[in-house]
Here is the input.
Amino acid sequence: MFTLVFSLVLFVMLMLVTTYDYRDRRFRFNKKIFISPLAFLFLFTAAITKVDANTVGIVYHPFQGGIQDAVLTEGFKTKNIFATVTKISTTNRTAYLEVAGQTRDSIYADFQITLVYRIEAANAGRFFKVTGHNDIQAEQLNSITKEALQSATTNYDIYLILGEDLETVRTDFTSRLAILLSSRYHITLVSTSFDDIDAGAEIEKIIQDKAQAIQLIEIAEQERQRAEVEAETTIIRANADASVTIIAAEAQAEAQIILNSVTINAINQMYLGQFSEGQDTSTPALYGYLTIQEISATILKQLYYDTWDGVLPTVIADGAGLIINP
Here is the structure.
């Protein structure tokens, strides 16, 4: 519109300048008047516009129903000289907000939130009709963010929000805000994050104490498990040692039984080996043979010498006599 008015004014001024005769001081038709229409060449600048990369142009035409549904894409575009073009970026935008939210247990906490959003090319016209600007205003974004946050945080206690349910709350908040931004302002929400949550010094101290108590419980549980393992290990070792002792004792007993059996057989064979066929084995003295007692004493003495460890027996004397410890 400004270009049109400027062109008309320039056209009129050129007509006046080219037709005015300064000598006669009056207007007179001459060939210079044909320069005047050149003033309308400025209208061509109003009929061409440039739309930058990652940007769309919203066309407003006062004689064709206002804001047009069709948008101008990137590059140089022609338009009606009466139309104005508002350019809206379609790239991701970032907003940093601090919003207060109330929890289920009636605690107010300050949330520092980072939002990433964008305006799709297909929704740029609708967005401009709602806001009248090329970006959402800070007050509008803050209000709708607080509404979404309140509807999410009232379902959780402050201790859960600051603890194990933090990600659940963020996901719930993101879902609610995405629906509100899309339905009211035709904005696409890309991502959200909770940068910090301040519930006050008292709540934070309680949470810190709780965390320390949980840590102490975990340490105690680890100590209990370690003690159980050590006790089980001790029992296993004791059982193993007992098993070894039992096996050794059984082996020694079996060996003694075998030794006793071998000794008896040896005594019997040596005693019987003295006699010839037909002689009476019950009267060794008659034949000048050794008695079974004498043979037994000889064999036992030989066994003692075979198993002697080289240590002399201990002799203990007292008033009653001598005691020899083998």
The first strand starts at residue 20 and ends at 21. Residues 246 and 252 are 10 Å apart (CA to CA). DSSP finds nine helices and twelve strands in the chain.
